[in-house]
Amino acid sequence: MFIIISGNFIDQITFSHVLTKLIVCLTGMPGAGKSTIADGLKLKGYEIINMGNAVREEAKRRNLEPSRSNLGKLMLELREKNGPGAVVELIKNQIENSSSNVILIDGIRSNDEIDVLRKFGNVKLLAIHASTDTRFDFLQKRGRSDDPQTKEHFEERDNRELGVGISNPIALSDHAITNIDLTKDELISSAYLIIQSWTE
Q: pTM for this one?
């Protein structure tokens, strides 16, 4: 048993404990394969936090229909009102309350979000690249409420993502996977091996 009488000491212990976490951020343009990796690694026991789902939950809390237009506007509104790292604030409690040593964050879009995450652990960036045609085909088949069904909506979504700074974490990633001619299992396996190397 420890009897701690110094407030500063308590803070140091808490901070040191939090920083033992490895936070793996999956980043890439919509439809590149981030969620495919996340779903596959969840089956291997990894804890997954999806940034898009955090926005969807916020939309639900506000009684908003989770349409492409509403979710896009909400994401921009959150950033405008609460700063460019605002979406990470929605998942902060999940990270703090997690008992996992490795957490995967699906859908990082800016360096500001990464700066917030660095307060909670050691951050690594894994970028997923895929061609425009591959991404569009995947999003059409996935069928989420906010997935684009036309090229115009697809380009609109790409431009919105670029506008909030997604190109920066992609460019500054610690590792990248090119999702061209990979099977689903190969894509997941590639990500798994990279993440395992970061835990050694």
A: 0.83
